[in-house]
Amino acid sequence: MKLDNYTAIDTKIHGMRKHLLTSEKIEAQGDVRTLNELYTLITENPSYKKAAEVLNTDVSSREDIELMLNYGNFFEFLKIYRFASLQQRAFLKRYAMFFEAWFIKHTLRSVVNRGETTVIMSPVTHYLDDNRKFKTTELIMATDVKTVVDALADTIYGPFFQNYSNLFSQNDYQRYEFEIAFDQFVIQQIWHGGKKYLTGESLNGFKKLFGARFDILNIFTIYRLKFLYQLSNNEVTSALVDAHYRLNDEYIDRLLEAPDIRNFEITVAELGYGDIFEHLSTDESLQKYEIAFLSSLQRHLATRAPKSMYAIIHYLEDSRRSLLMLEELTERISYKNISPIERSLNQ
């Protein structure tokens, strides 16, 4: 069977889309004002409902709801993984590094902030143990950073933690530096996995979608380090991710040599990313423009490969986007319900 063969997973994804929480579905519910109302909406999705049951989620706690959301999103992936062929699973294991990265970062934060982890035995931990060489029993019992890192030694993340061992101590770690380096490691592992395991229209769509994501990341990195921090060209170049779609060496050189933001924006527009970066010189957030661009590109590519591995990627990307939207909504509702006195103390 070739990797692009779709078989029964097509029907599975169609069924899961009926429960996917899109922005349109949430807007149709009207104004969601409280965490209880949000919880009721979220748990209409079977994966999130299962996560709520596994975790015994406290609906009055923002932290508990965000934990439920991420476990639920992992459960969404596992439903597809169980239906996938062995060849399809080869790529899906790389794509799952998005979920595993969250799991690892959350575990590290928990053990520093609480002196213990919040790892719960579930289909997530079974998958990590059986397929990814995690030692989740050790993670569940961990009370310090070193134990968490040691439990990952035999996984694909082991060499990364060894290379960045200077960022970790027994009871703490340099969070900002770690998460930047870790996110780059994860996305590049997924990039290499896509090129290794995908073929045909699936590979073409993957390269364009993820290549565009790398382009956008590198353009913003150049802008930030060049104009905000005034670093040298060599320092900027060393911070870039080594993957691209349209942003080749010629365009990188032009961006590095741009005398001002206006000329920088002109070059970006030539690359086709003008709609995202036309607000660089203002206080506008880039995130919503980036999401809109990548969503449109993703849908366009999906129409060209409706019965392929790319269709699976299309659903998983939509599911991850839904997660980010729900996390943002959880944060907004929580903030609105904090009293003025509590809000001033948290600022």
Automatic annotation (TrEMBL):
One Pfam family hit: vATP-synt_AC39
Highest taxon of the lineage: Bacteria
A molecular function GO annotation: proton-transporting ATPase activity, rotational mechanism
Keywords for the protein's UniProt record, in alphabetical order: Ion transport, Transport
InterPro entries per the UniProt record, alphabetical: ATPase_csu/dsu_sf (IPR036079), ATPase_V0-cplx_csu/dsu (IPR002843), V-ATPase_V0D/AC39_subunit (IPR050873), V-type_ATPase_csu/dsu_dom_3 (IPR044911)
Keyword Ion transport: yes
Protein's name in the database: V-type ATP synthase subunit C
Organism of origin: Aerococcus viridans
